[in-house]
Amino acid sequence: MGMDVHGLMPKQNIKRSEFTTYNRWVDEDWSDKIKAFDDDSELQQKYWDEEDKYQSVNVGVYFRNACARWRGLWDFCYFVGKDENLIDTETWREGHHNDGAGLDQVTSLKLAEKLQEAVKDGTLERFATEWEIEANTDDKGRLPKKSQWFYRFDVDNVSRFVGFLKECGGFRIC
Prior knowledge:
Layout: E1 2-7, H1 20-25, H2 30-39, H3 41-57, E2 62-66, H4 67-81, H5 89-94, E3 102-103, H6 105-120, H7 123-136, H8 155-168, E4 171-173
Antiparallel strand pairs: 1-2, 1-4, 3-4
């Protein structure tokens, strides 16, 4: 289970049509895709390889995270953007679900700037430490050993999300 974040008007560094197998099958019904892939493992592998390459060169198309990683990232986005109301409380709450919450292009770009500033000025490091302790403390106030923590704050994840925000043209979480 994870969070799927889709760019609304993503920058196309390499057009989808250049990835012929991916382009041919991406919009097909899943049942048709599964049948074709079951019949031809090379086709299946080529599709997934092209999808990975397409998304790696067009970082604003799609961003995914496991729920445990997304929670901290989205909380941090809310934290750094709250002074400018980049993410209101309702959008923040909805953003923890795959229900279609998101931001427009202008707000996405502003959020990318705020996240970059937070990395440079040390806000990210302080937030990450505090957030991990709070997120992993149980309802009785006990904090397990760090090796047993479920929720992790991934600093590299913030950098990947900044790249997505700069090229997504706005996004929806769905």
